[in-house]
Design brief:
7-stranded mixed β-sheet
């Protein structure tokens, strides 16, 4: 399984970015993708999750109402649309994958290399 993120960059506060995660190699079409981020000096934290098992999604409180996770199954791609970005959103963003449903998932099996998102004031 391989996960490849793209779409990071430098934006000003209040602007938007859309990240992409292309997933390849899953043995079946049922898997979950999660977006995580890690800011300098901080622990990695979850951001949003989506399941191709049933289409369900979930967001952490810090991004609810601003970020949207979606998928294009034909392209094996999961997106993270990030609006109203603020300085606290600055981090390396990773996508992670698992053949299991995201709900109650204790760990993720596969990780991408990450993409940097920097928000300036």
């Amino acid at each position: 399984v391989e996960l490849v993120e793209s779409g990071g960059g430098l934006v000003q506060a209040g602007e938007s970015l859309k990240l992409s995660c292309v997933a390849s190699g899953f043995p079946s079409g049922s898997y979950s993708i999660g977006w995580f981020r890690q800011a300098p000096g901080k622990e990695r934290e979850g951001v949003a999750y989506i399941s191709r098992h049933d289409g369900t999604k979930n967001y952490e409180d810090s991004v609810k109402g601003r970020f949207t996770i979606s998928s294009d199954n034909a392209k094996h791609t999961v997106y993270l649309q990030m609006n109203s970005l603020n300085i606290e959103d600055t981090a390396v963003y990773y996508c992670a994958g698992s053949p299991r449903h995201w709900y109650g998932l204790g760990y993720w099996d596969y990780w991408g290399q990450g993409t940097q998102v920097t928000v300036s004031s």
